[in-house]
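Hey,

Quick one before I head out. I ran the complex with BES overnight. Inputs first:
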Amino acid sequence: MNWLLLLLLALGLFLAAADSNYDYYRLPTALRPQKYYLRILTHLENRKEFRFSGTVKILIEALENTNNITLHSSTLAIDESQTTLRQISGGEKKDNCVASTEVDINHEFYILKTCQQLLAGNIYELSVSFSAELQDQLKGYYRSSYVDPAHNKTRWISITQFEPTSARLAFPCFDEPGYKAPFVITLGHHRKFTALSNMPVDRTSSHDTLPDYIWTEFQESLPMSTYLVVYSVNNFIHKLSSLNNKPLFRTWARPNAIDQCDFASEFGPKVLKYYEQLFGIGFPLPKMDQMAIPDFDARGAMENWGLVTYRESSLLYSPEYTTLMGKKLIANTMAHELAHQWFGNLVTMKWWNDIWLNEGFATYVSSLCIENIHPEWHSVELDFHSYLLTFFKIDCLESSHPVSRPVELASQIFESFDEISYEKGSLVLRMMHLFLGEESFRSGLKSYLEKYSYKNADRDDLWDSLTQAAHKNFILPKDYEIKDIMDSWIVQTGYPIVHVTRDYSARTASFSQQRYLLNTNLSKTDRSECWWIPLSFTTQEEKDFNNTAPKAWMECSQTGKSLPKTLEDLPGPDQWVIFNTRLSSPYKVNYDARNWELLIATLNSDDFESIHVVNRAQLLSDVLYFAWTGEQGYDTALKVIGYLKRERELLPWRSVLDQLNIVSSLIQPTSNYGTFKRFISKLITPIYEHLDGINYTDTTSIRNQDELHLKLILASWACPFQVSDCAAQSLLYFSNWRSAANPDENNPVPLAARDTVYCTAIRRGSDEDWDFLWTRYLRSNVAAEKQTILRSLSCTQEVWLVQRYIERIFEGKGDIRKPDSVSTFKSIASSEVGFLLAKEYFMENIELISKFYHPQPETMSEILLTLSSQIYTRKDYNKFKDFVANSKDYLKNMDQAISQALETILTNVQWMSQKQTLFTRAIEKFL
Ligand code: BES
Ligand code: ZN
């Protein structure tokens, strides 16, 4: 290229940057915010006028000369008469002002053209005043409410939810994670309220003009991204943690729920302490608040720095109403959000394409944290197993996507907070932890966090720190880079199936890898994916499942091709081998027929426990998938499953039932369902009875928490499949409750059994039973109990009750809060009778439903996926496809969910036509 062309190109780029037709989703890079002073006045007293108004003063450093200041701003009314711009340092100070402004709705930009050029190296102060309605859309700065039972009055609070791109709804700002700056926040509010924010209060003062109003000013924050800013005006009360007083740790809730804060307030400081040790870096803020918000986004919690917000059900614990599962969910959510205080808040990803760094990491280390505080919960094993189940299910779709992928639009950013970022992200980090070992993992992390504190980083920065640590500790060969290994899992979609082919006389095994795809019509040749795969294994003689370190690697060439791999010195023909000990990496393994036979023999012998429980779960899950996609037959799969009559552990059962659940909903409307029911009954009766069904008397001995968990899962199968006394026992519990003198105070149903008991009673029961439970829902003060009831009400088989329930969700009366609507609709759509009605309702009322979720119609993605999992005929596939095509306007920003839903249906259609009969024949033999 000659120099003239280069010059023209450079000039072109320069003009483009300075041009008012700037059409790029990222902010221009000429400016950088140095500090924000944010003052917000909130009106919460008059329900006819919920408003906030404010002024943001931003100190801005010019990095390049520029004629405009581009900020993010959306739905804010800006009072331009108040806008000021002045130079405050650098060079000779000149007057400056704003000549004109422009709005770019598409990119949510507010562009101020300056009177004079802003010069590189100078600092400017821009002040902008704005106001907006304090709406109830659960994002930006919004309002939430609860009923104060003492006075039967609705009380209002205000709260923010900014991640990922909603700070711009609350104040004009540089709303990208890379623009970190300290914030000085001041909140104006009626003196009867408390104001909370990221930092402790610095001072309060009276409002000049508004009587009874005060200003609460908070200390200056550490440099942070806009999405982590938080503030709230409320009349909540708090509980102080007793464990230690550094940092000051408080848990906030509406007054009537303060007695549900004990667990969270004791657990929180323990979590912080654990992370201080794990990361080797102290918690940098002087205080930590956590707050239960009555109306919170469809998700569970938000990690705002110094003030974490939660849904009530993810923070509040009641010994009488919260099950052990509920308690674990709370612990997990807290551990997740507090992990972000380091991973995400202290060190933040440069851009949203690496959101998995935040989310995958928090998901992974929260299990480590809980394992440390509650070892009896077995969190690490249980969590990663559950993530694997989800991950194997979705990442085998062609329409899945890589962990790290380019994102531009706000909707794409939002879409990235999915199972791939969370579950797959955490699984690949666990794989890395296991092949690196404790020392390299910890020291690599520490140096990464130290190096990038108060700054931004991308995954390459993390890989560098870890590679250095690994090489220093001689954990990886010098020519191995973490980046090569990890990027093969992060940048490629899907996961591999490793084929192990043994040569029994030469005592060798050769390996090949291939992406595992559920859709069997897709060609398997011509695919070019290659993963760096750690090969850990053990043999029948050795049975060393503790060693998860790779004994060899499947490598990829420079050009990304899988290199051939052979292992020697394997055992002889009478011994099995198992690869991927304890499922340390997220891939599937298929063996030759002989190895499977050897495994089946051990599984079906008294010696089955010599195979580690996680690998028993692996074998079950893999073989069932392989039967689905044809790598193995259902005969082999059923031979593996046959050993379950001896199995007493949670993970194998959870693997199998998770798979059978999919089959169940497909086969349920067919004539083969009778056989399937007998099969399930035969399969689970022994273990159900061994665990004493749904009895929870004092004499029931529950040996450990896993057993309780297994008991719950089995009950949820036993009752609908009429196994043993499950249904009868449930009905008895329920009728005892119905005849209790004061059912809101006295509930004789054992806490752990409530899910199943309520559901069964509603499935078998009358209108009165339904209304009885609905009334309990309305009167309950505990979010977890409310959720259990909402789920159970969907179990009814009465068409009109289902219909009324669906209408209640969307009628807007507010009995079912919007954030609970999706899960409620989903549970209706997953039930037998509910499915058809829900599908019908959804397709016919898509306009109404999309309005209900406005302005976040993407909330409906989950509904699409739930419906698709039960559609299985070609005709219905076409109908659904037409529906999606005709409803484009209502299904905006849901491209990912739509293609996943359509592909799921296609694979269902395939299974029904190709595998249903084979499956039924195989289970008939089992009976
Ligand atoms: N950072 C997220 C919250 C979030 C999610 C904000 C999506 C914006 C968009 C938070 O840390 C989180 O991941 N919360 C989880 C709970 C957690 C226990 C997995 C959630 O809310 O689902
Ligand atoms: Zn998170």
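The radius of gyration is 29 Å.

Talk tomorrow,
K.
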